[in-house]
Design a protein that fits this description.
heterotrimer, A mainly alpha (299), B alpha/beta (254), C mainly alpha (318), A: 299 residues, mainly alpha, two-stranded antiparallel ribbon, 12 helices, globular, C: 318 residues, ABC transporter involved in vitamin B12 uptake, BtuC, two-stranded antiparallel sheet, 2 strands, 77% helix
């Protein structure tokens, strides 16, 4: 009896880690745009939804091989992210943060509406990337797709770290986020960096959307809740801190999965949000955030 | 014991950069003291520390014997420290009169509920705020166009409004951050007269200024900063002859 | 102002007292109460909330539950709802408004979702997803507001009252403090203004207005369900304020009426109306960030100035 409870908890942990990877990736998407612009992009969840939707269309309707469809989807969503910035954010040159946020809210509604127009209200599934045969581990079982999700998430984090550390553009983006004026003085065009940040976070959102669809289905309305939970992870990890985002994503995913399994499944979706409210109360700088840094953003 | 403001070994670091380094400074009640120094010497940072816009990294700031460390900016203002900004931070979404009326905010108290239903007390208070604000505008020599938006008026008026607004808070210490910047010679002379007049009201003044003739004319004492550290302090004439000061301004090869 | 009052009084008699439009305008009035508060929050305190549907829902459910389950007097229930909602807003506002940035938007969004999940999950208390009914109608001094036309005048008198009070606030020391937040918090703080305290106050006030609106809704429709207070409404409310113009209180009213009436014409698009709202919102923010009323005010000012210029030229000639 005891063994079965432990294996059940282990099972919840496995589920939590896989969904938590997605939250972590969404959180990283928030962070990249936040670092470049200081705004919270309310359309972040829509990038995730579009990733899933476009992938489904490419593989199911056009019969593209998974690997081709994957990169094509990421490219298309990245393009949408870039277009969104050029059409909606860029024209608002001197607008305040409030206007920018309202625009991203508008953008999220539009993207959602377009998705409903194109794909209707049905849910779509995607075949698993490899076998659907669960792998038994210590009494729990792991779907191979979970390993794909973990792998994709880790790869994304590694690639991003390399990008921000070692490439010229990545360094320029970091320079912009720490001091815009100084970056401008050494010849970095901050506006281009903002556009790039949208492209990058759209691409990451798309990856998250693609890898989660095989286990979670996708519909036009899917983005919003993922975004909200991803944001919870971003705040828990310290807004702007991507290492924190990954850890917080896992934490929230595990909490949610344990809470739904052991406490009440009716409140499953509320768990991440309650974490968000509690963290805003207790430690708004997040578990890995720098308290000083939070204060200084206002100056 | 007539020091109004006393800074003891005040330091402020931004990451690896030390903007203000172990500065000691005393401002006596009723004096006009100037802080001068080349660009980037840490003058404005010093003002931000005194007005509690920034926290100090180390050291102690005392105002009338009370430590200011850890106070919020609005709390420092409530103690009687008012300031102006280098770029004349006036509110463009308010009329001139309203800008100065804002200065009376701290000296009035009717809250959200009372002003919403316009109690007799709230009405009276609003009227008093308006009269006080008008009085400070007249004091600064602004006598008309009270309902205009600042955008429609010349810059010198912006300066005057900003100082009037700072005075309306009834400060004990007034911090003026480059008040003559952007003014012509005649306007600067007018400003000098104003500053003297403010001092005659019993208000102590600490001023950052690049215009040396203004500094030499009005200040009782001058403190010179360079690279965040104090390099000289004393009567204007003495400071002017100080070797180190001349070096800081003109370089070693002058 | 007087023109507006006359227009609102005449309106029912122009379209007919039993017209469907009366109902539409009652809803416009109910939502206007929220947008007046939201306009203070967005346009003056510079903060955005995506949880006002939650405060609306709290008002509606509290009023509904207290009057049906415990047979409370509706007015007492309304006060209890106000108290509950204001405390919730205070609890959310204090930590989030102390921070710079827009944590409030996300925190209120989360609150709204949690509340909807709660309303749906607690089937025994709230009737779950299908809601509950039989909420009594409001009565004033024993006079029951049964007919639509009665409720119409009742709601819009409250809206007028709220509008006058909001205007009083704007033209007071509190209003100036709020406007100074928008102009630059640094200078406002230097004037001794505790900006975050005022942000919290306005947020709580706007939540209280939303609660009031929810209570009125419950007593008018006599039925509440989670669909009445979902995220879609929160977004709608923000769109209403932004379209009308967030720096003008009248903008809130104009935007609300517009967006309540518009769906009546957008029925042909069915569910795709949401797409239209998203597009309208983006276009307004990009091309007329001060909204319709803001754009109109700017136009009038420009015309007046041009007129004055011509006038003074003429005088100069003479």
């Amino acid at each position: 009896m005891g063994i079965s409870i432990w294996s059940q908890i282990l099972q919840y942990l496995v589920t939590g880690v896989s969904i938590g990877s997605i939250y972590g990736m969404v959180a990283i998407g928030f962070n990249i745009i936040y670092n470049a612009t200081g705004i919270i992009n309310f359309a972040q969840g829509e990038f995730v939804m579009l990733g899933g939707m476009i992938m489904v269309t490419l593989t199911a309707a056009f019969g593209a091989p998974v690997i081709v469809a994957f990169f094509l989807t990421v490219a298309i969503v990245a393009l949408i992210g870039g277009l969104f910035e050029r059409l909606a954010i860029y024209p608002l040159k001197n607008a305040g943060v409030l206007s920018l946020i309202i625009v991203t809210i508008g953008g999220s509604i539009v993207l959602k509406g377009v998705a409903m127009f194109v794909w209707g209200k049905e849910s779509y599934a995607l075949p698993h990337f490899s076998s659907e045969e669960p792998i038994p581990i210590l009494g729990a079982s792991i779907l191979p797709q979970t390993l794909w999700i973990l792998g994709a998430m880790l790869l994304t984090v590694v690639l991003l770290t390399l990008f921000f550390r070692f490439t010229l553009i990545g360094r320029a983006m970091r320079a912009c986020s720490s001091n815009r004026t100084a970056a401008y003085l050494v010849g970095i065009d901050a506006r281009q960096m903002v556009c790039l940040s949208f492209i990058l976070s759209a691409a990451i959102g798309a990856v998250a959307g693609i890898i989660i669809t095989p286990i979670a289905l996708v519909d036009y309305n899917r983005g919003f809740l993922l975004a909200l939970k991803g944001f919870s992870a971003a705040v828990l990890g310290g807004l702007g801190n991507s290492a924190g985002a990954v850890i917080a994503g896992f934490l929230i995913g595990i909490l949610e999965s344990l809470g739904a399994g052991l406490v009440s499944s009716g409140y499953k979706d509320a768990i991440a949000l309650i974490v968000l409210l509690v963290i805003l109360f207790v430690r708004p700088s997040g578990i890995l955030g720098d308290k000083e840094a939070l204060k200084h953003r206002s100056f | 014991m007539n020091d109004l403001l006393e800074l003891t070994k005040v330091t402020r670091r931004f990451g690896g950069l030390t903007a203000v380094q172990s500065v000691d400074l005393r401002v006596r009640q009723g004096q006009i003291k100037a802080v001068i120094g080349p660009n980037g010497a840490g003058k404005t940072t010093l003002f931000n520390l005194i007005s509690c816009v920034l926290p100090v990294s180390a050291g102690l700031i005392q105002f009338q014997g009370n430590a200011l460390n850890r106070l919020k900016a609005y709390a420092a203002a409530a103690l009687g420290i008012s300031r102006t900004f280098q770029t004349a931070a006036i509110f463009h979404n308010m009329s001139i009169l309203e800008n100065v009326m804002l200065g009376r905010h701290m000296r009035s108290r009717r809250g959200l509920f009372r002003v919403a239903i316009k109690t007799p007390g709230a009405r009276r208070e609003e009227k008093a705020i308006r009269e006080d604000a008008l009085q400070w505008l007249h004091f600064m020599g602004v006598n008309d166009r009270f309902d205009s938006l600042p955008g429609e008026l010349p810059f010198v008026i912006h300066r005057k409004i900003e100082i009037a607004r700072a005075l309306a808070t009834e400060p004990k210490l007034l911090l003026l951050d480059e008040p003559a910047a952007g003014l012509d010679i005649r306007e600067t002379e007018e400003l000098a007269a104003c500053i003297q007049k403010i001092r005659d009201q019993g208000i102590t003044i600490l001023i950052i200024e690049h215009d040396m003739s203004l500094v030499m004319d009005i200040s009782d004492e001058v403190c010179v900063l360079n690279y965040g550290a104090k390099i000289a302090e004393g009567a204007p004439r003495d400071v002017q002859r100080n070797e180190e000061v001349i070096e800081a301004y003109l370089g070693k090869e002058h | 102002m007087i023109v507006f009052i006359l227009l609102f009084c005449a309106f029912p008699f122009l379209v007919g007292v039993k017209s469907y439009w009366i109902t539409v305008f009652i809803f416009a009035g109910i939502y206007s109460l929220i947008t007046i508060g939201l306009s203070l929050l967005m346009g003056y305190a510079g903060q955005i909330s995506l949880g006002h549907a939650a405060f609306f829902g709290m008002g509606a459910y509290t009023s509904g539950l207290l009057t049906t389950l415990l047979n409370w007097n509706p007015w007492l229930a309304l006060l209890a709802a106000l108290l509950l909602t204001s405390s919730a807003a205070l609890l959310i506002g204090i930590p989030t408004l102390r921070l710079s940035g827009h944590y409030l938007a996300m925190a209120t969004l989360a609150l709204g979702e949690i509340l909807v999940i709660f309303f749906k999950a607690e089937v025994e208390l709230t009737g779950g997803p299908s809601g509950f009914g039989l909420i009594p109608r409001l009565s004033i001094f024993g006079f029951v507001l049964k007919r639509d036309i009665e409720f119409y005048f009742f709601v819009w008198s409250i809206v007028a009252l709220a509008l006058v009070m909001a205007m009083n606030v704007i033209h007071s020391r509190v209003g100036r403090a709020l406007r100074s937040i928008h102009g630059g918090e640094l200078a406002a703080n230097a004037m001794g203004i505790n900006t975050s305290s005022y942000k919290v106050q306005v947020f709580v006030l706007s939540a209280a207005l939303a609660s009031l609106s929810g209570s009125l809704y419950a007593h008018y429709v006599t039925f509440v369900s989670p669909t009445a207070c979902e995220l879609k409404l929160s977004v709608f409310l923000v769109v209403m304020v932004a379209i009308g113009g967030m720096h003008h209180l009248w903008g809130a009213i104009v935007g609300t009426i517009l967006l309540t009436v518009l769906p009546e014409f957008l029925h042909v698009f069915q569910d795709f109306d949401i797409l239209a709202y998203g597009l309208i919102l983006m276009i307004i923010m990009i091309f007329a960030p001060n909204g319709l009323v803001g754009a109109l005010a700017a136009l009038i000012q420009r015309l007046r100035r041009r007129f004055l210029a011509v006038d003074s030229q003429r005088r100069g000639v003479i």
